[in-house]
């Protein structure tokens, strides 16, 4: 569906966060339609420019939904909700801002859309790719949670649009990017997806509508990508294999040729080097100068809350990895640093398996202490007691983040320094609005020491 297909239709915009408000304003600005209904799960104070429209919320939401010809859902509105399923049965068209914008860009003959997805690492990967393309002189836009909202890019003229796609956005797309990349797939049990199987299928749906001539790159080292991309083998290309770009011990290689060493970069994390193998696979596919790309990469500034160096004090380095919402992310973070490590972990329970995390702590003698807190704290602690038997290891359950930071700092000062790694392994909801607020709280505590 294209924006023009909305002309003079009765449109319901469901979800009035940033994206919902942006599409309403876009429809107003471009005089697409005046027949707009606003839907929201809870009551909300409407901005002045939206007060001419009817708002349906709570128990009255379905009444508004039934009046619409087309519903534009926000990412937070699950496609598995009963109201969505019933509306589809009744002939209502369900779409999203992402799908509308993607279709618009795909019809532009001189514009290539590149979609980046995965459980972890998609933000950094998309940012690096856009940064390199921009600095090679191409008109490139970065869209998504870490770039400009896609709806705001529609009035621009670009050669490349690099877009980060979440599983929420990819789940019901009617089109696919010309080029896509998957960093990984990890276990995530989300109420939004009604289970892990749906989550994986919704992620991979990003490339379900690719056509002949399109291509996507997947991480060969991730078992779940091997499994879930199998129905779409035709357009698939692997990275992290010795036949192409791959990472080993913090070095990015192309076949036998060394491309760049992580010690030359501002980016932390060996797992980021694996993701860069995918980024450079795309650059090679586009015919870019790989040596020039490697030089440009050295000046790329890492994104905040992703293995972000906050402060070094008394030989103790504080790392903010608040974006870490899965045990696998913390395992990757542990392997990114030398010297003594104290981990701070815990957040909202997302029914994740912490056995591999505990095993990684047992096997990595650099980890001297883990401090657990919040809802998942007791669960993480129980697995650590079960699996970690090293005599030099200490486990402490704490009440709050301030206490965790102070104890971690004290521990490392006593044993000669090291890294305090705030890698929560769990979502932030229930304690913070998002991972950014959580990371900023960690930073504030560290600077107050």
Describe this structure in words.
The mean pLDDT is about 95. Helix 5 packs across helix 10 (about 270-285) and helix 15 (about 400-415) crosses helix 16 (about 435-445). The chain folds into 3 domains: about 5-95, NAD(P)-binding Rossmann-like Domain (Rossmann fold, 3-Layer(aba) Sandwich), CATH 3.40.50; about 110-295, Mur-like, catalytic domain (UDP-N-acetylmuramoyl-L-alanine:D-glutamate ligase, 3-Layer(aba) Sandwich); about 310-445, Protein-Tyrosine Phosphatase, Chain A, CATH 3.90.190.20. The protein has a 6-stranded parallel beta sheet, sandwiched between helices. It has a 6-stranded mixed beta sheet with strand order 15-16-20-17-18-19, with helices on both faces. The chain has helices at about 20-30, 60-65, 80-90, 95-105, 120-135, 150-155, 165-170, 195-205, 225-230, 270-285, 290-295, 325-335, 355-365, 375-385, 400-415, 435-445; strands spanning about 10-15, 35-40, 55, 70-75, 95, 110-115, 140-145, 160-165, 180, 215-220, 235-240, 245-250, 250-255, 255-260, 310-315, 315-320, 340-345, 365-370, 395, 420. It is of the alpha/beta class. The chain contains 16 helices and 20 strands.
